[in-house]
Write a structure and sequence with these properties.
By secondary structure, the protein is mainly alpha-helical. It is built from two helices and no strands. α1 packs across α2.
């Protein structure tokens, strides 16, 4: 090999030096760099998993929020419907009570009017009978007994 210009002893020494440097680099540089790269890769993978999980959780939360919102709208509509029904029922009750009270007032007014009419008629009949008796007394000129007065008065009133 000397003919080629290669010194065998120097070549072996260089190979041994290269192997030592390679071993040292592998032990102190390559392994820690690989460890750091593996840690970094694990962190990136974990970050991706966490991001996927967060996206999944967010979509589930959005679905749950939509369900809650729909439920709340449904409950609000039910409450509004019940309130309208209660208001309509209450309004109908108030109208019925007012109508009943108006009917009672009208009946009382009619009864009072009929009673007043009857009283006026009785008073009028009494006065007419008194007038008829006085007229008969003047016409006949003598006093009639009570039976005759009553018969004549009843007949005169019935003719009116």
């Amino acid at each position: 090999m000397e003919a080629l210009g290669i010194n065998l002893l120097s070549f072996i020494a260089q190979i041994i030096n290269f192997l030592i440097v390679m071993f040292l680099l592998w032990k102190f540089a390559y392994k820690p760099v690989l460890g750091i790269l593996e840690d970094r890769q694990k962190k990136v993978e974990q970050g991706l998993k966490d991001a996927d999980k967060a996206a999944k959780d967010r979509s589930e939360a959005e679905l749950e929020a939509e369900k809650i919102r729909e439920k709340a709208y449904g409950e609000a509509n039910e409450i509004l419907k019940n309130a309208k029904e209660a208001a309509n029922t209450e309004a109908a009750d108030i109208v019925k009570k007012a109508s009943d009270q108006a009917d009672r007032i009208m009946k009382n007014a009619k009864d009072e009017a009929a009673a007043a009419k009857d009283k006026v008629m009785k008073d009028a009949k009494k006065e007419i009978s008194d007038v008829v008796v006085l007229a008969l007394d003047k016409i006949v000129g003598e006093e009639l007994d009570s039976n005759q007065k009553e018969k004549l008065t009843t007949r005169a009133i019935s003719e009116l």
